[in-house]
Design a protein that fits this description.
The protein is an all-alpha fold. It has helices spanning 2-24, 31-58, 64-91, 121-139, 149-172, 177-180, 189-207, 222-241, 249-277, 282-296, 305-329, 338-356, 370-373, 377-407, 414-419, 421-426; strands at residues 113-114, 119-120. It has a single domain (31-210, 218-431), classed as Orthogonal Bundle (Ammonium transporter fold), CATH 1.10.3430. 68% of the residues lie in helices and 1% in strands.
Length: 439
Protein backbone atom coordinates (compact mmCIF):
# COMPACT_ATOMS: atom_id res chain seq x y z
CA UNK A 1 0.00 0.00 0.00
CA UNK A 2 2.79 2.40 0.92
CA UNK A 3 4.52 1.57 -2.34
CA UNK A 4 1.31 2.30 -4.29
CA UNK A 5 0.83 5.65 -2.53
CA UNK A 6 4.44 6.60 -3.15
CA UNK A 7 4.05 5.73 -6.83
CA UNK A 8 0.84 7.81 -7.10
CA UNK A 9 2.51 10.74 -5.35
CA UNK A 10 5.49 10.57 -7.71
CA UNK A 11 3.17 10.41 -10.72
CA UNK A 12 1.24 13.51 -9.58
CA UNK A 13 4.45 15.43 -8.92
CA UNK A 14 5.79 14.45 -12.33
CA UNK A 15 2.61 15.59 -14.04
CA UNK A 16 2.66 18.88 -12.11
CA UNK A 17 6.26 19.43 -13.12
CA UNK A 18 5.42 18.79 -16.77
CA UNK A 19 2.48 21.23 -16.62
CA UNK A 20 4.70 23.87 -15.04
CA UNK A 21 7.31 23.37 -17.75
CA UNK A 22 4.66 23.68 -20.44
CA UNK A 23 3.32 26.87 -18.84
CA UNK A 24 6.81 28.36 -18.69
CA UNK A 25 7.68 27.36 -22.24
CA UNK A 26 7.95 30.37 -24.53
CA UNK A 27 5.32 30.87 -27.21
CA UNK A 28 6.62 29.77 -30.59
CA UNK A 29 7.40 32.80 -32.76
CA UNK A 30 6.30 32.69 -36.38
CA UNK A 31 9.48 33.44 -38.32
CA UNK A 32 7.61 34.28 -41.56
CA UNK A 33 5.37 36.87 -39.91
CA UNK A 34 8.30 38.27 -37.96
CA UNK A 35 10.40 38.68 -41.09
CA UNK A 36 7.54 40.38 -42.90
CA UNK A 37 6.92 42.80 -40.02
CA UNK A 38 10.60 43.72 -39.64
CA UNK A 39 10.97 44.27 -43.40
CA UNK A 40 7.81 46.40 -43.33
CA UNK A 41 9.23 48.42 -40.44
CA UNK A 42 12.36 49.10 -42.48
CA UNK A 43 10.24 50.13 -45.47
CA UNK A 44 8.25 52.60 -43.35
CA UNK A 45 11.48 53.98 -41.88
CA UNK A 46 12.67 54.67 -45.46
CA UNK A 47 9.58 56.81 -46.03
CA UNK A 48 10.87 59.61 -43.77
CA UNK A 49 14.00 60.18 -45.91
CA UNK A 50 11.76 59.78 -48.96
CA UNK A 51 9.49 62.51 -47.64
CA UNK A 52 12.53 64.67 -46.94
CA UNK A 53 13.68 64.41 -50.56
CA UNK A 54 10.13 64.96 -51.82
CA UNK A 55 9.79 68.19 -49.84
CA UNK A 56 13.38 69.36 -50.41
CA UNK A 57 12.93 69.21 -54.17
CA UNK A 58 9.93 71.55 -53.95
CA UNK A 59 11.40 74.38 -51.86
CA UNK A 60 13.70 77.21 -52.90
CA UNK A 61 17.30 76.07 -53.40
CA UNK A 62 18.42 78.09 -50.36
CA UNK A 63 16.24 75.95 -48.04
CA UNK A 64 17.12 72.43 -49.18
CA UNK A 65 19.34 71.47 -46.23
CA UNK A 66 16.91 72.87 -43.64
CA UNK A 67 14.00 70.97 -45.19
CA UNK A 68 15.94 67.72 -45.19
CA UNK A 69 17.00 68.10 -41.54
CA UNK A 70 13.52 69.09 -40.33
CA UNK A 71 12.34 65.70 -41.57
CA UNK A 72 15.31 63.56 -40.58
CA UNK A 73 15.31 64.87 -37.01
CA UNK A 74 11.89 63.27 -36.46
CA UNK A 75 13.49 59.82 -36.63
CA UNK A 76 15.73 60.61 -33.67
CA UNK A 77 13.47 62.74 -31.48
CA UNK A 78 10.28 60.73 -31.90
CA UNK A 79 12.18 57.44 -31.83
CA UNK A 80 13.58 58.23 -28.38
CA UNK A 81 10.19 59.40 -27.11
CA UNK A 82 8.47 56.32 -28.49
CA UNK A 83 10.77 53.85 -26.73
CA UNK A 84 10.71 55.70 -23.40
CA UNK A 85 7.04 56.68 -23.01
CA UNK A 86 5.24 56.88 -26.34
CA UNK A 87 4.55 53.23 -27.07
CA UNK A 88 3.24 52.63 -23.56
CA UNK A 89 0.88 55.61 -23.67
CA UNK A 90 -0.39 54.57 -27.10
CA UNK A 91 -0.62 50.77 -26.84
CA UNK A 92 -0.80 49.64 -23.23
CA UNK A 93 -4.32 49.01 -21.97
CA UNK A 94 -5.16 52.26 -20.17
CA UNK A 95 -8.66 53.61 -20.77
CA UNK A 96 -10.71 54.83 -23.73
CA UNK A 97 -8.59 57.94 -24.21
CA UNK A 98 -4.97 57.13 -23.30
CA UNK A 99 -2.82 54.13 -22.52
CA UNK A 100 -1.09 53.32 -19.24
CA UNK A 101 2.42 52.89 -17.93
CA UNK A 102 2.83 49.14 -18.42
CA UNK A 103 5.42 49.47 -21.18
CA UNK A 104 7.50 52.46 -20.05
CA UNK A 105 11.04 51.93 -21.36
CA UNK A 106 9.61 48.80 -23.03
CA UNK A 107 9.25 47.17 -19.62
CA UNK A 108 8.18 43.52 -19.71
CA UNK A 109 8.29 43.26 -23.51
CA UNK A 110 11.62 41.54 -24.09
CA UNK A 111 11.22 38.05 -25.59
CA UNK A 112 7.43 38.36 -25.36
CA UNK A 113 5.06 37.62 -28.28
CA UNK A 114 2.47 40.02 -29.64
CA UNK A 115 -0.97 39.03 -30.88
CA UNK A 116 -2.24 36.10 -32.89
CA UNK A 117 0.43 36.60 -35.55
CA UNK A 118 3.02 35.33 -33.01
CA UNK A 119 5.56 38.07 -33.68
CA UNK A 120 7.94 39.48 -31.05
CA UNK A 121 6.45 42.41 -29.16
CA UNK A 122 9.57 44.40 -30.03
CA UNK A 123 8.82 43.91 -33.73
CA UNK A 124 5.32 45.34 -33.40
CA UNK A 125 6.65 48.22 -31.29
CA UNK A 126 9.30 49.01 -33.93
CA UNK A 127 6.71 48.93 -36.72
CA UNK A 128 4.50 51.40 -34.88
CA UNK A 129 7.52 53.57 -34.04
CA UNK A 130 8.14 54.24 -37.73
CA UNK A 131 4.55 55.49 -38.12
CA UNK A 132 5.05 57.79 -35.16
CA UNK A 133 8.25 59.19 -36.68
CA UNK A 134 6.91 60.11 -40.11
CA UNK A 135 3.61 61.63 -38.99
CA UNK A 136 4.89 64.92 -37.52
CA UNK A 137 7.48 65.15 -40.32
CA UNK A 138 4.57 65.54 -42.74
CA UNK A 139 3.70 68.86 -41.07
CA UNK A 140 6.98 70.49 -42.14
CA UNK A 141 5.68 70.87 -45.69
CA UNK A 142 3.06 73.36 -44.48
CA UNK A 143 5.57 75.64 -42.75
CA UNK A 144 8.57 75.17 -45.02
CA UNK A 145 11.16 77.96 -45.51
CA UNK A 146 10.23 79.91 -42.38
CA UNK A 147 10.37 77.61 -39.34
CA UNK A 148 12.73 78.16 -36.42
CA UNK A 149 14.54 74.83 -36.06
CA UNK A 150 14.76 75.03 -32.25
CA UNK A 151 11.01 75.65 -32.06
CA UNK A 152 10.37 72.82 -34.50
CA UNK A 153 12.28 70.26 -32.43
CA UNK A 154 10.29 71.25 -29.35
CA UNK A 155 7.02 71.23 -31.28
CA UNK A 156 7.89 67.84 -32.76
CA UNK A 157 8.20 66.28 -29.32
CA UNK A 158 5.13 67.92 -27.80
CA UNK A 159 2.89 67.24 -30.80
CA UNK A 160 3.85 63.57 -30.83
CA UNK A 161 3.01 63.24 -27.14
CA UNK A 162 -0.22 65.24 -27.06
CA UNK A 163 -1.75 64.63 -30.50
CA UNK A 164 -0.38 61.55 -32.23
CA UNK A 165 -0.22 59.22 -29.23
CA UNK A 166 -3.78 59.81 -27.95
CA UNK A 167 -5.29 59.43 -31.44
CA UNK A 168 -3.30 56.23 -32.05
CA UNK A 169 -4.73 54.86 -28.80
CA UNK A 170 -8.28 55.86 -29.77
CA UNK A 171 -8.11 54.09 -33.13
CA UNK A 172 -5.71 51.16 -32.83
CA UNK A 173 -6.36 49.65 -29.39
CA UNK A 174 -9.31 47.60 -28.25
CA UNK A 175 -10.13 50.09 -25.48
CA UNK A 176 -9.78 53.16 -27.70
CA UNK A 177 -13.13 54.90 -28.06
CA UNK A 178 -13.09 55.18 -31.88
CA UNK A 179 -12.28 51.48 -32.24
CA UNK A 180 -14.93 50.59 -29.65
CA UNK A 181 -17.44 52.72 -31.56
CA UNK A 182 -16.78 50.62 -34.68
CA UNK A 183 -14.48 52.96 -36.59
CA UNK A 184 -11.96 51.40 -38.99
CA UNK A 185 -8.55 52.71 -40.00
CA UNK A 186 -6.35 50.02 -41.50
CA UNK A 187 -3.03 51.87 -41.65
CA UNK A 188 -3.40 55.50 -40.62
CA UNK A 189 -5.92 57.64 -42.49
CA UNK A 190 -7.17 59.05 -39.19
CA UNK A 191 -4.07 58.52 -37.08
CA UNK A 192 -1.41 59.71 -39.52
CA UNK A 193 -2.82 61.76 -42.36
CA UNK A 194 -5.74 63.65 -40.88
CA UNK A 195 -3.71 64.57 -37.79
CA UNK A 196 -0.74 65.75 -39.87
CA UNK A 197 -2.88 67.49 -42.47
CA UNK A 198 -5.02 69.38 -39.97
CA UNK A 199 -1.95 70.29 -37.90
CA UNK A 200 -0.32 71.57 -41.09
CA UNK A 201 -3.35 73.75 -41.80
CA UNK A 202 -3.33 75.25 -38.30
CA UNK A 203 0.43 75.76 -38.38
CA UNK A 204 0.32 77.46 -41.80
CA UNK A 205 -2.32 79.85 -40.50
CA UNK A 206 -0.37 80.64 -37.32
CA UNK A 207 3.06 80.92 -38.95
CA UNK A 208 1.78 83.29 -41.61
CA UNK A 209 2.82 83.67 -45.21
CA UNK A 210 6.40 83.53 -46.40
CA UNK A 211 7.86 86.92 -47.33
CA UNK A 212 8.02 85.82 -50.97
CA UNK A 213 4.78 83.85 -50.98
CA UNK A 214 3.26 86.05 -53.67
CA UNK A 215 6.08 85.33 -56.12
CA UNK A 216 5.94 82.54 -58.66
CA UNK A 217 8.00 79.74 -57.15
CA UNK A 218 9.30 76.76 -59.09
CA UNK A 219 10.65 73.55 -57.53
CA UNK A 220 14.43 73.65 -57.27
CA UNK A 221 14.93 70.01 -58.32
CA UNK A 222 12.24 67.95 -60.05
CA UNK A 223 14.47 64.86 -60.05
CA UNK A 224 14.64 65.02 -56.23
CA UNK A 225 10.84 65.22 -56.08
CA UNK A 226 10.46 62.19 -58.32
CA UNK A 227 13.04 60.27 -56.27
CA UNK A 228 11.19 61.15 -53.07
CA UNK A 229 7.87 60.06 -54.57
CA UNK A 230 9.41 56.74 -55.64
CA UNK A 231 10.78 56.11 -52.15
CA UNK A 232 7.41 56.96 -50.63
CA UNK A 233 5.55 54.65 -53.02
CA UNK A 234 8.04 51.85 -52.31
CA UNK A 235 7.97 52.36 -48.54
CA UNK A 236 4.18 52.60 -48.49
CA UNK A 237 3.94 48.87 -49.21
CA UNK A 238 5.36 48.38 -45.72
CA UNK A 239 3.06 51.09 -44.37
CA UNK A 240 -0.14 49.48 -45.66
CA UNK A 241 0.58 45.82 -46.37
CA UNK A 242 2.68 45.61 -43.20
CA UNK A 243 -0.36 46.71 -41.19
CA UNK A 244 -1.79 43.24 -41.75
CA UNK A 245 1.01 42.18 -39.33
CA UNK A 246 0.94 38.62 -40.67
CA UNK A 247 2.32 37.72 -44.08
CA UNK A 248 -0.77 36.24 -45.68
CA UNK A 249 -3.73 36.95 -47.93
CA UNK A 250 -4.62 40.25 -46.25
CA UNK A 251 -1.08 41.61 -46.65
CA UNK A 252 -1.11 40.65 -50.33
CA UNK A 253 -4.48 42.34 -50.82
CA UNK A 254 -3.31 45.53 -49.11
CA UNK A 255 -0.18 45.48 -51.27
CA UNK A 256 -2.27 45.39 -54.46
CA UNK A 257 -4.78 48.06 -53.39
CA UNK A 258 -1.90 50.29 -52.32
CA UNK A 259 -0.27 50.08 -55.73
CA UNK A 260 -3.43 50.45 -57.77
CA UNK A 261 -4.77 53.29 -55.59
CA UNK A 262 -1.59 55.29 -56.15
CA UNK A 263 -1.77 54.57 -59.88
CA UNK A 264 -5.39 55.76 -60.10
CA UNK A 265 -4.68 59.07 -58.37
CA UNK A 266 -1.46 59.50 -60.41
CA UNK A 267 -3.53 59.36 -63.62
CA UNK A 268 -6.41 61.61 -62.48
CA UNK A 269 -4.15 64.29 -60.95
CA UNK A 270 -2.03 64.32 -64.11
CA UNK A 271 -5.11 64.52 -66.35
CA UNK A 272 -6.51 67.48 -64.40
CA UNK A 273 -3.15 69.27 -64.73
CA UNK A 274 -3.06 68.43 -68.42
CA UNK A 275 -6.53 69.91 -68.95
CA UNK A 276 -5.77 73.04 -66.89
CA UNK A 277 -2.31 73.81 -68.29
CA UNK A 278 -2.24 71.91 -71.60
CA UNK A 279 0.85 70.06 -70.33
CA UNK A 280 1.26 67.03 -68.06
CA UNK A 281 3.35 67.89 -65.01
CA UNK A 282 5.93 65.52 -63.51
CA UNK A 283 5.67 67.31 -60.17
CA UNK A 284 1.89 67.08 -60.32
CA UNK A 285 2.08 63.37 -61.12
CA UNK A 286 4.34 62.84 -58.09
CA UNK A 287 1.87 64.68 -55.86
CA UNK A 288 -0.93 62.56 -57.32
CA UNK A 289 0.94 59.41 -56.32
CA UNK A 290 1.10 60.62 -52.73
CA UNK A 291 -2.59 61.58 -52.69
CA UNK A 292 -3.54 58.11 -53.88
CA UNK A 293 -1.37 56.49 -51.23
CA UNK A 294 -2.89 58.71 -48.53
CA UNK A 295 -6.44 57.93 -49.65
CA UNK A 296 -6.01 54.16 -49.75
CA UNK A 297 -4.21 54.02 -46.39
CA UNK A 298 -7.30 53.68 -44.13
CA UNK A 299 -8.95 51.30 -46.59
CA UNK A 300 -6.15 49.09 -47.95
CA UNK A 301 -7.17 45.97 -46.04
CA UNK A 302 -10.91 46.56 -46.19
CA UNK A 303 -11.95 47.43 -49.76
CA UNK A 304 -11.87 45.64 -53.10
CA UNK A 305 -9.52 46.57 -55.93
CA UNK A 306 -12.43 48.15 -57.83
CA UNK A 307 -13.32 50.31 -54.84
CA UNK A 308 -9.68 51.35 -54.43
CA UNK A 309 -9.59 52.60 -58.02
CA UNK A 310 -12.84 54.55 -57.59
CA UNK A 311 -11.95 56.23 -54.31
CA UNK A 312 -8.35 57.10 -55.25
CA UNK A 313 -9.26 58.24 -58.75
CA UNK A 314 -11.83 60.60 -57.26
CA UNK A 315 -9.38 61.81 -54.62
CA UNK A 316 -6.67 62.57 -57.18
CA UNK A 317 -8.97 64.90 -59.11
CA UNK A 318 -10.64 66.47 -56.06
CA UNK A 319 -7.42 67.16 -54.15
CA UNK A 320 -5.86 68.73 -57.25
CA UNK A 321 -8.75 71.17 -57.59
CA UNK A 322 -8.81 71.83 -53.85
CA UNK A 323 -5.08 72.59 -53.76
CA UNK A 324 -5.53 74.99 -56.69
CA UNK A 325 -8.39 76.70 -54.87
CA UNK A 326 -6.27 77.25 -51.75
CA UNK A 327 -3.37 78.69 -53.75
CA UNK A 328 -5.45 81.03 -55.90
CA UNK A 329 -8.48 81.97 -53.80
CA UNK A 330 -7.14 82.22 -50.24
CA UNK A 331 -4.22 83.85 -48.44
CA UNK A 332 -3.21 80.58 -46.77
CA UNK A 333 0.45 79.68 -47.38
CA UNK A 334 0.42 75.91 -46.96
CA UNK A 335 3.77 75.76 -48.71
CA UNK A 336 3.66 72.19 -50.07
CA UNK A 337 -0.10 71.45 -50.00
CA UNK A 338 -0.02 69.35 -46.83
CA UNK A 339 -3.65 69.92 -45.93
CA UNK A 340 -4.95 69.41 -49.49
CA UNK A 341 -2.99 66.17 -49.89
CA UNK A 342 -2.87 64.58 -46.44
CA UNK A 343 -5.74 66.25 -44.62
CA UNK A 344 -8.34 66.13 -47.39
CA UNK A 345 -6.99 62.89 -48.88
CA UNK A 346 -7.10 61.24 -45.46
CA UNK A 347 -10.67 62.43 -44.88
CA UNK A 348 -11.82 61.12 -48.25
CA UNK A 349 -10.14 57.78 -47.56
CA UNK A 350 -11.64 57.42 -44.08
CA UNK A 351 -15.16 58.37 -45.20
CA UNK A 352 -15.03 56.10 -48.24
CA UNK A 353 -13.78 53.24 -46.07
CA UNK A 354 -17.13 53.62 -44.33
CA UNK A 355 -18.78 53.29 -47.72
CA UNK A 356 -16.80 50.47 -49.38
CA UNK A 357 -15.45 48.19 -46.59
CA UNK A 358 -16.29 44.58 -47.37
CA UNK A 359 -16.24 41.32 -45.41
CA UNK A 360 -15.29 39.60 -48.65
CA UNK A 361 -11.92 41.32 -48.26
CA UNK A 362 -11.62 41.19 -44.48
CA UNK A 363 -14.04 38.85 -42.68
CA UNK A 364 -12.86 40.16 -39.31
CA UNK A 365 -14.69 43.48 -39.62
CA UNK A 366 -17.92 43.76 -37.65
CA UNK A 367 -19.85 45.96 -40.09
CA UNK A 368 -19.58 46.47 -43.84
CA UNK A 369 -19.65 49.79 -45.66
CA UNK A 370 -22.77 51.73 -46.49
CA UNK A 371 -22.67 51.00 -50.23
CA UNK A 372 -21.84 47.33 -49.69
CA UNK A 373 -24.47 46.36 -47.12
CA UNK A 374 -26.73 49.36 -46.67
CA UNK A 375 -25.76 49.46 -42.99
CA UNK A 376 -24.91 52.89 -41.58
CA UNK A 377 -22.93 51.89 -38.47
CA UNK A 378 -19.42 51.92 -39.95
CA UNK A 379 -20.11 54.99 -42.09
CA UNK A 380 -21.31 57.00 -39.09
CA UNK A 381 -18.48 55.73 -36.89
CA UNK A 382 -15.85 56.81 -39.42
CA UNK A 383 -17.42 60.23 -39.98
CA UNK A 384 -17.53 60.67 -36.21
CA UNK A 385 -13.87 59.71 -36.06
CA UNK A 386 -12.96 62.20 -38.81
CA UNK A 387 -14.77 65.04 -37.05
CA UNK A 388 -13.37 64.19 -33.61
CA UNK A 389 -9.78 63.80 -34.81
CA UNK A 390 -10.00 67.02 -36.84
CA UNK A 391 -11.28 69.10 -33.92
CA UNK A 392 -8.94 67.54 -31.37
CA UNK A 393 -5.89 67.99 -33.60
CA UNK A 394 -6.74 71.58 -34.49
CA UNK A 395 -7.29 72.67 -30.89
CA UNK A 396 -4.26 70.93 -29.40
CA UNK A 397 -1.96 72.02 -32.23
CA UNK A 398 -3.08 75.63 -31.76
CA UNK A 399 -2.35 75.46 -28.02
CA UNK A 400 1.02 73.79 -28.50
CA UNK A 401 2.19 76.35 -31.05
CA UNK A 402 1.18 79.14 -28.67
CA UNK A 403 3.16 77.51 -25.85
CA UNK A 404 6.24 76.91 -28.00
CA UNK A 405 6.14 80.48 -29.27
CA UNK A 406 6.37 81.73 -25.68
CA UNK A 407 9.48 79.61 -25.09
CA UNK A 408 11.18 80.39 -28.41
CA UNK A 409 9.92 82.16 -31.56
CA UNK A 410 8.28 79.71 -33.95
CA UNK A 411 9.37 81.67 -37.01
CA UNK A 412 12.83 82.84 -38.08
CA UNK A 413 13.53 86.60 -38.40
CA UNK A 414 12.82 88.13 -41.78
CA UNK A 415 16.51 88.62 -42.61
CA UNK A 416 17.21 84.90 -42.02
CA UNK A 417 14.22 83.89 -44.13
CA UNK A 418 15.45 86.16 -46.91
CA UNK A 419 18.98 84.76 -46.72
CA UNK A 420 17.73 81.20 -46.60
CA UNK A 421 17.64 78.79 -43.69
CA UNK A 422 20.48 76.65 -45.00
CA UNK A 423 23.11 79.36 -44.46
CA UNK A 424 21.38 81.45 -41.77
CA UNK A 425 20.40 78.59 -39.45
CA UNK A 426 22.60 75.63 -40.36
CA UNK A 427 25.67 77.19 -41.98
CA UNK A 428 25.52 74.64 -44.78
CA UNK A 429 24.43 74.51 -48.38
CA UNK A 430 23.17 71.80 -50.69
CA UNK A 431 25.88 70.22 -52.80
CA UNK A 432 23.96 71.30 -55.88
CA UNK A 433 24.68 74.96 -55.26
CA UNK A 434 27.69 76.91 -54.04
CA UNK A 435 27.60 79.48 -51.28
CA UNK A 436 27.88 82.43 -53.68
CA UNK A 437 24.38 81.75 -55.00
CA UNK A 438 22.93 82.88 -51.64
CA UNK A 439 24.46 86.34 -51.59
Amino acid sequence: MKTLLAFAFALIMSAGSAIAQDAAAPVVIDSGNTTWLLVSSALVMLMTPGLAFFYAGMVNRKNVVSTLLQNYVALAVVGLLWVTVGYSLAFSEGNAFIGGTDFFMLSGMMNQPYGDAKVPHYAFMAFQMMFACITPALITGAIAERVNFKAWVLMLALWSLFVYIPVAHWVWTAKGWIAADGGLDFAGGLVVHITAGVAGLVAAMMYGRRINAGEVSRPNDVSMIMLGAALLWFGWFGFNAGSAIASGHLAAHAFVTTFIGAAAAFVTWMMVDWIKHSKPSAVGAAIGIVVGLVTITPAAGYVTVESAIIMCGFSGAFCNLFAHFIKTKTHLDDSLDVFACHGVGGMIGAIMTGMFASKAVNPAIATEGLLVSGETGLFIANITGVIAVTIFTAVVTFVLIKIVNVITPIRVPENEESTGLDVAVHGEVSRFHDRRSYS
